[in-house]
Design a protein that fits this description.
mainly alpha; binds benzoyl coenzyme A
């Protein structure tokens, strides 16, 4: 038996025993690469995810709503930073990750390529998008790679605040004037299907799931998490008095789950490939921010070098 195979067996045995893998531990190259891919794409999603919501900060309908939204958008930036740091422990630099985002090599969640057309969209994002993110991320608090799992614990606490602020916005609108209720319904209509797409392709079309389940990166499959989201969210929509835009949706007594309609997979892949309604705008905004921020990064580096030199001067 080659030493590599032996190491792989020992590695799998550690995973099977529920041990966490830490950055300096031996790991198969594919495990490292899968994590760099998933964690960096997750970080990019958090950062790109600030754009559709940031669009509404200056137009929030009250000071309370503005403060809540500002805090949420700021939290997303923080999530991006914890996640970039977790990915860096695997030997990729932050500059490389940004480069992959800016050149379109790295993906980010499809959901952020849809526009936010009304204030109700901010409610729908908190309720549905953060709601879907929590379901996926609670699973990731138990993922096998230590730094990712630990980052997720804190992120999930913040996401649950986000989900509640979104649901509260929806509640206010749904119990408001007929026009407000209509706005809420319209936001639900536009965000329902893209939210279901967040969980990724069907299990049979998901090339990464089998290996990721074996390595306990994923504890549940895309379809299992999607079902969990539908089961939790339908009663919440009923409480709001809003209808889910899926005529086939119905409770299945035998399965103990809701049956729901087929996702438009053509739309999903188009958005993933860069052809969604806002892909170009989102990437352009990130590239602009990177280029316009160059002087800030240069100044911070120059200051850090100057401070280091001062420290050495004082020490000698
Ligand atoms: N969008 O084999 P699969 C948030 C890609 S942000 C785009 O199932 P995997 C928030 C997938 O990457 C929350 N691409 O892959 C922030 C793969 O392509 P590559 C974001 C998608 O990785 C601001 C290919 O399709 N959450 O909370 O096993 C405001 C085949 O898929 C998508 C995360 O990132 C998609 N929806 O499973 C508000 C969670 N789905 O990479 C809220 C962490 C699939 O091979 N990520 N693809 O070229 C994951 O849990 C997994 O990566 C996924 C996909 C479940 C997303």
């Amino acid at each position: 038996m080659s030493p590599e195979i032996n190491l792989e067996e020992q590695f799998q045995a550690r995973i099977d025993a529920g041990q966490k893998i830490e950055p300096k531990d031996w790991m198969p190259e594919k495990y490292r690469k899968t994590h760099i891919r998933q964690i960096s794409q997750h970080a990019h999603s958090e950062v790109v995810g600030m754009l559709p919501e940031g669009n509404w900060i200056t137009r929030a309908p009250s000071l309370r709503r503005k403060v809540g939204l500002l805090a949420k958008v700021q939290d997303e930036a923080g999530h991006g930073l914890y996640l970039y740091s977790a990915a860096e422990t695997l030997g990729i630099s932050r500059d490389e990750m940004y480069e992959q985002l800016h050149t379109g090599k790295a993906k980010y969640s499809s959901i952020f390529n849809y526009p936010t057309l009304s204030w109700a969209d901010i409610g729908a994002i908190g309720w549905l998008v953060d709601g879907a993110a929590i379901i996926n991320q609670v699973m990731l608090t138990r993922t096998s790679f230590g730094p990712y799992a630990r980052a997720m614990v804190r992120i999930c606490k913040e996401e649950s605040f986000h989900q509640r602020q979104g649901y509260e916005i929806m509640l206010g609108l749904a119990k408001g004037t007929p026009e407000q209720k209509e706005m809420a319904q319209d936001a639900l209509n536009r965000f329902w299907w893209p939210s279901l797409m967040m969980f990724g392709p069907r299990d049979e079309d998901s090339p990464n799931t089998a290996q990721s389940v074996k390595w306990k990166i994923k504890r549940k499959t895309n379809d299992e998490l999607r079902q969990q989201f539908v089961d939790i969210t339908v009663p919440q929509a009923e409480f709001l008095g809003l209808s889910i835009p899926d005529p086939t949706l119905q409770w299945n007594e035998e399965r103990g789950h809701y049956d729901f309609g087929e996702i438009d997979w053509n739309e999903f892949w188009q958005v993933v490939k860069g052809n969604g309604p806002c892909n170009k705008e989102r990437l352009a905004a990130r590239v602009d921010a990177w280029e316009e921020g160059a002087w800030v990064r240069d100044a911070a580096m120059a200051y850090a070098e100057w401070k280091e030199k001062e420290k050495i001067k004082k020490a000698v």
